[in-house]
Amino acid sequence: MTIPTELKYTESHEWVKDNGDGTVTVGITDHAQDALGDLVFVELPEVGKQLAAKDACAVVESVKAASDIYSPVGGEVTAANEALDGAPETINEDAYGEGWIYQLKLSDPSELDNLLDAGAYEQVLADEG
Amino acid sequence: MGSRTPLFAEHERLGARIVHFGGWDMPLHYGSQIDEHHAVREHSGVFDVSHMRPVDIEGADALPYLRRLLANDVAKLKQPGKALYSCMLNPEGGVIDDLICYYRGPERYRAVVNAATAEKDLAWMQEQAQDFKVSLTPRQDLAMLAIQGPDARTKAEPLLPAALREPAMALKPFFAAEDDDWFVGRTGYTGEDGFEIMLPAGQAAAFWTALLDAGVTPCGLGARDTLRLEAGMNLYGQDMTEEIGPLESGLGWTVAFDPKERDFIGRAALEAKRERGDLQRFVGLLLTGRGVLRSHQPVVVEGRAIGEVTSGGFSPTLQRSIALARTEPAVGDDCAVEIRGKAVPARVVKPPFVRNGAAQITL
Lengths: 129, 363
Prior knowledge:
heterodimer, A: 129 residues, alpha+beta, CATH 2.40.50.100, 3-stranded antiparallel β-sheet, B: 363 residues, 6-stranded mixed β-sheet, 6-stranded antiparallel beta barrel, 9 helices, 21 strands, lipoyl (chain A), 2-oxoA_DH_lipoyl-BS (chain A), Single_hybrid_motif (chain A), Biotin_lipoyl (chain A), Glycine cleavage system H protein (chain A)
């Protein structure tokens, strides 16, 4: 399982990329996509929607089950990855790249400090066994 | 830790994702459930189904015993090797389990029951056997593989014991041939052609490996579930239960009410139900809106719940979500399914959804 060091993480297996312009990109980790299995449907958040940190904001469905995606930080949704509509398997193939789920304009950039770094996320995975 | 089949080490070697199922540690998939599904529809796949339990039923009363025990009538089985699908009912007309029963010769039958229910089934079968001259022998010494797909039989043929090759290839659907402890049935749970093979547990790993070497794709329980759903085949515990009987699970065709004098367990309850009428319907659903159908989602018409999804999922062949559902008798052609609080439109269709690689419904 890869855990890129330049990203931040949550205990619920989302990743966050700081785009450096007040926005972030959010997706699910390689571990999450592997645990879910083949993805068959993604319900994206609406652009313009206001989210608070830990809000359930999207759903990914695998062959097995549906799983909520929780927004790692608060803000306004600025983009959703519409390409996932016809190709949810992109998340399985490239969880940290083409498989991004949405972008957010941060309402409080200091919330980024609450997220896990790669080392801490690796520990979360180790603790889950 | 659950029970392990004779092929557990092979599954681990292949990097299978292992899940707990019916008391067993079984492979869910070996990487991609969807790829495994397509392999069975397009070429061939092999499933370890050794968790299922063969039970040999032998003795002078084997026939009258099974005619009492099962809702379908084994007296229909005249030719050795012929198989029959049946429900085993409780006196209230609910389903204890569904099974396949093979006629092997006079006074000799073999039933294959589900893994999760095997102990319950055996206790029930023993209890019912008390007034009959019959012996029940669970065959845990046998492994069981399902080889399914358009290429399955030709891939398996050269790997069978020499004496079984010709008889196995000559089998008509729903017939079996046997030699020593090898038992080959032209049956399955995928909607494709193929074999289900019982063989001595000690020979299972070599046979499995030979099939893989011949290019047959190893497939897990995940693909088994999406394949059977596309084929419109019921799953015990989901589509029918001890509370919900065959007449409301699309299995009325498996209940032999004729001859009228055959007093099978559950008969009186089913007849009373039939007389009362107003039976719930068991239908297929094709989701026309966005989302994935799952068990227990409510089926809704004009804002009113009229039923429930019993098995749902994503169909890799149709690239749509499909389901089996139980509804009030008067369901029309259109309905909605409530997914996360939203009513998503669906169409009522007649299963199967897919057979022999081809769609059976219009999308």
